[in-house]
Amino acid sequence: MAKQIINTGSAANDRTGDTLRNAGIKINANFTELYNILGGSNITSSTTSLTDSGLDIIGTTARTKIGAVNPSSEISIDFPDSAGIVTINTATQTLTNKTLDSADLNNPEILNLNLYDDDSSHFYKFAPGSLTANTNVNIPSLSDSDTFVFNKKSATLEQKTLDRPVIQRSRVHQYLADSNGNSVISFTATHTASRNIVRVQSQATGTSPNINAIGADANVDLILNSKGKGSVLLSKAAFSRAEVANGTFADSDATYIALTGTSSGTVSLGDGTLNGEFKMFARRGGGTGTVTLTPTTFAQGTSINFDPLDTAQLIWDGTSGWNIVGGYGYAVV
Asked: Which domains can be identified in the chain, with CATH numbers?
């Protein structure tokens, strides 16, 4: 209802204004509208009242005072087209369907956190397990942007120290290193510069796996030691084989060397590289004459003669040279 104005006429008692009855009707109508707005037909101490500082909502034992600070400019406070409860900054309340833009959260308690992607089409749901006590999740101080690591997501880890890890079906690229970062066991030809290491290679079905010595040096021994008086137990051993014709050198990487000459001739043998190095010689096949093996350094003479089917086993001693330790070849003194 619009406010009803009492017509007071143009001058006192000029009989042009409202009658006393009409004036009273307008007054009652105006008061009725005010009463209805402020609390109904019976305004008591438990309703609402306007004060010089704002609006008081009077309860049974106390009142809620709604006011505003003195603004420095005109401001607007707009209520949405929705029913609900006004949110107060210090009250414990549940917020629903709220978007926080550039918000600062101080000690928030979050239940059922959903983190949406860049187009808000899907979200990550954070679902912690059941805890028996409050637990910290510590995030390190980062000097640059970084990425969380998850147990099923492929990722590259850098500068990580694993303490007592349990590793299943691990895939190691290049090599395993010691505590100083030097390569120890390699799975490719890669190794730390100026280091001699062990290379382990798997092979396809039908081919044997390999354990090799690799490194910066041209010649690298591969040493396998037991402890104390313990032994290295081999279930079955075999030696690499090479064939050497008359007039050539037997300085082969092989341990078992077959002398293939079918007539008299000579074969040269250079010095060994490691004390205890072992070589086996056998003159194979038929033929005639004598094949003479001449070591550069020979402890028991100058050369070793091989008739057809003769054999000889030699061990290198860095002090005295090659020594015959078995076989049928005979030393020439």
From this structure: 20-64 (no CATH), 163-225 (no CATH), 241-332 (2.60.120)
